[in-house]
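Limitations

Structures in this collection are predictions, not experimental determinations, and the ligand pose is part of the prediction. Treat each record accordingly. The example that follows, with NAP as the small molecule, is included so readers can see exactly what is and is not provided: the inputs are given verbatim, and the output is the predicted complex.
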Amino acid sequence: MKDQSCVGIGIVGSGFLAETRARCYAKAGVAGRIVAVTSRTLEGARSYAERHAVPAAFDDLEALLALDEVDVVDLCVPNLLHRPMTEAASRAGKHVVCTKPLAAYVGQDLAADVEDAAVSSRGRREMLEVAVADAQAMVDVAEAAGVQLMYGENWVYAPSIVRAADLLQAAGGAILEMRGWEGHSGSHSAYSKVWRNTGGGALLRLAAHPIGAMLHLKREEGLERDGEPIVPVSVSAEVADLSRVAAVSSDGTELAGGWEDVENWGCAILTFSDGTRGVAYGSDNMLGGMESKLEVMGSRCHLKCNMTPNDLLRAFAPDGGVFGEEYIMEKLDSGAGWTTPIPDEDYSSGHIAMCADFLRAVSEGRPALADGRLGLEVTRVVYAAYVSAEEGSRFDL
Ligand SMILES: NC(=O)c1ccc[n+]([C@@H]2O[C@H](COP(=O)([O-])OP(=O)(O)OC[C@H]3O[C@@H](n4cnc5c(N)ncnc54)[C@H](OP(=O)(O)O)[C@@H]3O)[C@@H](O)[C@H]2O)c1
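Predicted complex:
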């Protein structure tokens, strides 16, 4: 029997992001409960269900969608499944949360048996067209079905960025320049090293976060002041695989290696419709733990948003074993010396506030702050950046 006062969540996938979601929905402070999970294997789904006391586990999305108690489906699955699963869930009348990137180019317009190289060597203009068409189709199918498509961009909800947005509004004036990046010492997942699996490298996996936050802040600035969103109008970018630099050998670095055909460094310069700029980059070449930062230079103030690391707590340990198995922070390479054990990474990254907004959006029937439209625009900017990097010139959106 459906509990009308509590939003029923169906989780799809049982990996890294699905774990984050289980923690964050539980901490959201809004009535919502994971009522079912489906994963690629029944074993994976059952194991997740046991860990998080989820009453139903399947290896079939349709079985989860058939449950009346599922109000919203949260897609924590590889990028190539985002569009088909959004379509299936929308048509079943379920609201959808889709993680970043909303859509990606993974060779969906090619024959299934083409080599990996045929996917990664596809022209970037074709990639842009296919990825944007997928993202647009996701927005359209949700709209036609009368359900919400929410975009899982946690940066939009990070407490430091939310507070910065408030201060920018209080200060007035314009955001002139933004610099944002996400970086760490490299994904250790073999999956992320192949374009066919992910649809891109550091620009898509990592820089999509600062790009999402920048598009959000400029849009809000324009709406607040002039009733019109400020939007990106062009992008210039470069990408590189820095593991191929001659002086780097795999046994001489702690950085992740094994990059097949995706970049592990990417930088995009965005020009907005009011002439202001944003510089976003993603890097898999950053030792010392995860960095997620956004700096905002306004005409009346200057703000530095630290999601990771932040120094609410600093700790010193003479060697890496002092704190035993204690978690310090994401992707920290060593616990020795001075570190910043973050009191609640799910809070400072914005994940908890994001889950709370998604649950409220569903129960109150209003749009989420991060919605499918934002996901569509991020997809457009990232793939336009790939076009610019390939052609060596600025790309007008
Ligand atoms: N901050 C963020 O917003 C953030 C952070 C991390 C990841 N992500 C995004 O989250 C997505 C998943 O990444 P992840 O790191 O969680 O990957 P992951 O750890 O590999 O988990 C993916 C999960 O999807 C399952 N799966 C694969 N095919 C499926 C299918 N057909 N039906 C149902 N489940 C299926 C996998 O099952 P098996 O394990 O059995 O293959 C696995 O449980 C990606 O789009 C990524 O970009 C976002």
